[in-house]
């Protein structure tokens, strides 16, 4: 692929099976990690991504290639084999895969590399979306997004290059399947990010942060109560979504 296209613009999209159950891992990487089969799978994925980047570097394309690595969701907390948990870990964030509202299901890091254009080591703490890949790629390719419809994504380039300080998404809508579970409001000219939850799955056990008894949390119906008024969080102060606000605690 690279040899055919290294002298002209190209788009390479790689959708890895790693790190998804059943965690298919070649023999070479089995037992390599201190964190079981899941860790082995992560290490093999790291090796695969490294091989891709090595070819880009070897062909002299590093400074002219925009590389974006991300995931489509947070760790799948309920995934297990026997007593071993195989679904990753979401740190301080509540919930996981299959939960359309909680941060642990939807907040993932994006890692971007473009040495010729973007400075190394920059950390941007702004909400973006995988929907932003489309308008970003269109812009980098010299095209224009369709004008006959609403495009939900926003090009990432102004944010990455520092010409703007905030994401183009003032609001982000978080669905579980076709059901709206939560809405995020990134208040303009402020570092405050509000999050309203309209529906949340009931965890089993209640304090576990996941639906272990079901195997995965449902999106609707029994086990997904609706909140009226919605649960409201200030993510800039409470990223773990532990303390819902009320009119008494937050008059605004």
Automatic annotation (TrEMBL):
SUPFAM superfamilies: Alkaline phosphatase-like. InterPro entries: Alkaline_phosphatase_core_sf, Sulfatase, Sulfatase_N. GO terms for cellular component: endoplasmic reticulum. Residues 1-26 form the signal peptide. This is ARSE Arylsulfatase. Residues 5-142 form the Sulfatase N-terminal domain. The keyword Heme does not apply. Belongs to the sulfatase family. Keywords: Calcium, Hydrolase, Metal-binding, Signal. GO terms for molecular function: arylsulfatase activity; metal ion binding. Its cofactor is Ca(2+). The keyword Calcium applies. It comes from Todus mexicanus. Residues 233-252 are annotated as: Disordered.
């Amino acid at each position: 692929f690279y040899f055919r296209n290294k002298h002209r613009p190209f788009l390479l999209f790689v959708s890895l099976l790693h790190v998804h159950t059943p965690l298919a891992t070649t023999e070479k990487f089995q037992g390599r990690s201190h964190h079981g089969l899941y860790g082995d799978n992560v290490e093999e994925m790291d090796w695969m991504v490294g091989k891709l980047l090595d070819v880009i570097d070897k062909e002299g394309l590093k400074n002219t290639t925009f590389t974006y690595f991300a995931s489509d969701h947070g760790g799948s907390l309920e995934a297990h084999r026997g007593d071993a948990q195989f679904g990753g870990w979401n740190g301080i964030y509540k919930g996981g895969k299959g939960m359309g509202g909680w941060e642990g299901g939807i907040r993932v890091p994006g890692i971007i590399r473009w040495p010729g254009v973007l400075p190394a080591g920059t950390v941007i703490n702004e909400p973006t979306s995988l929907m932003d890949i489309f308008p970003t790629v269109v812009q980098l390719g010299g095209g224009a997004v369709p004008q006959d419809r609403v495009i939900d994504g926003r090009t990432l380039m102004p944010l990455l290059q520092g010409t703007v300080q905030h994401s183009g998404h003032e609001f982000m809508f978080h669905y579980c399947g076709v059901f709206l579970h939560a809405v995020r409001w990134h208040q303009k000219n402020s570092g405050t990010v509000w999050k309203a939850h309209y529906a949340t799955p009931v965890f089993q056990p209640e304090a576990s942060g996941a639906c272990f008894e079901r195997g995965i949390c449902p999106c609707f119906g029994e086990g997904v109560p609706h909140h009226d008024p919605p649960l409201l969080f200030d993510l800039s102060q409470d990223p773990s979504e532990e303390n819902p606000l009320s009119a008494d605690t937050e008059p605004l």
